[in-house]
Amino acid sequence: MLGDGELFFSVTDGKGVIREGNSVFARVSGYGLGEMVGEPHSLVRHRGMPGGVFRIVWERLGRGRAVGVYVRNSTKQGGEYWVFATICPVGEKYLSVRVVPRTRLREVAERVYAQASRAEEVVRRGGGSRRDAAEAGAKVIEEELLGYGYASYEAFMVEAAAAEVAARGAGSVRAHARPDARGAIGEVLGGTEELQGVLGELVGRLAVYQRVCGELTGASEEVLEVARRLERAVAAAQEASEVAVDVPVLANVARVMAKPIGEAVLALERLGPELSRLRGDVARLRFWIALARVHAEMSAAFAAEVHDGLSPGASLGSVPLLCDAAAAGALEMAGHVRRVNEGLHGVAQLAAAAEGMMEDFRRWLGQWRNLVLRHRAAPAIGAQLAVIDGELAASWDWMRTLRWEGYEAAVVPFDASLMTAPLERIARVL
């Protein structure tokens, strides 16, 4: 069966017909490579897999987008095994590298797939076509994932890819190291090691950033709720100033101090969606990093097998396609890094704007409080004043969390040439 550190590899054409495969794929599936090449990839598909899964996969691939998916396959002898498959369009071909699932997300996929299969069976019994059944299954998959906290299949996919690749750990990469390798093999192994170093550093930065982003999201939700309550309390104080007290200046200041708290609420309302978009960009960036890592590791695995005499030298012929996929991924990563940094800047601006409005409000509140004391209006307004003071204290505690000092330090540095340079060196020797 498939070992924890092993990788499946296959290439199909635009119709899903297998054109290449590696020794691991052949061994685990029970088919020789000669038997598989020229056959549709559905040769190894388990009959329990819902068609809706593949509808989602092919719809995404049809738009030129990479995809990640949990798949249950069958062996030639009737056994079964699960993989997490990454699939990328590269020119007119589709490149797939698959790993052993290690996280709880596979269990989520199993439960969701079971619901989709039941929905598809209902459609088929009602006389619906396979296409109709697959559409129904795809819809159920999306709906079921909502119950697990995923807004879409893409949200589930990007988390699963990053989690499964991270779960492999550094040991799986080190397993392919061959310090004595020379020539083309040495170049491939050296280049992939350099790639893994660049990607590992980026992953480390994003892990910290993702944690902080979560903390900021919680803080923004709390301070927004407090600010809304404060806005209501200020509106009540404004009404009391105008109705219960015959002091025009008090009512005027009350109206003025309502403006900054209203603007603070607007800024905080925008902050939530900005943070949500930012988390999405970080997740998609982690997805592309995960793909680049498995492509680099797969290249190293080919080179290590040739070095050890377990595969013919011709196996290195698959490495250029992996390099092409990694190079395309580097461009995707550069775009996502740019969006992450722009999003981070936007979040910092909104948090600063909200804090500035809250500071303005505190200054006007101080003036209003002095007027209340000067005109002996506390008996009429004292209740509203106590509420405002309580809400303001609560909001300031949460604003301290949003006043994070590390916005600029968290900007993700990324130079695509750090990836493309080793890829180009590998390409030159193959």
Describe the structure using short key phrases.
alpha+beta; Beta-Lactamase; 2 domains; 12 helices
Total helix count? 12
Please give the oligomerization state of what you see: single chain
Structural class: alpha+beta
Helix content: 55-70%
Radius of gyration: 29 Å
Mean pLDDT metric? 88
- The strand order across the widest sheet is 2-1-5-4-3
* Biggest pleated-sheet summary: 5 strands, antiparallel
Quote the distance from N terminus to C terminus: 31 Å
Tally of domains: 2
Task: Determine the strand fraction and express it as a percent band.
Answer: 5-15%
**Total number of β-strand segments?**
5
Low-confidence stretches: none
Q: Shape from CA axes?
A: elongated
How would you spell out the order of helices and strands? EEHHHEEEHHHHHHHHH
Task: Summarize this entry quickly.
With about 425 residues, the chain is of the alpha+beta class. It has twelve helices and five strands.
Verbal overview:
By secondary structure, the protein is α+β, with helices and mostly antiparallel strands. It folds into two domains: 1-168, 2-Layer Sandwich (Beta-Lactamase), CATH 3.30.450.20; 180-429. Helix content is 69%, strand content 8%. It is built from twelve helices and five strands. A five-stranded antiparallel β-sheet has the order 2-1-5-4-3, with helices on both faces. Helix 9 (248-307) runs antiparallel to helix 10 and helix 10 (319-374) runs antiparallel to helix 12. The mean pLDDT is 88.
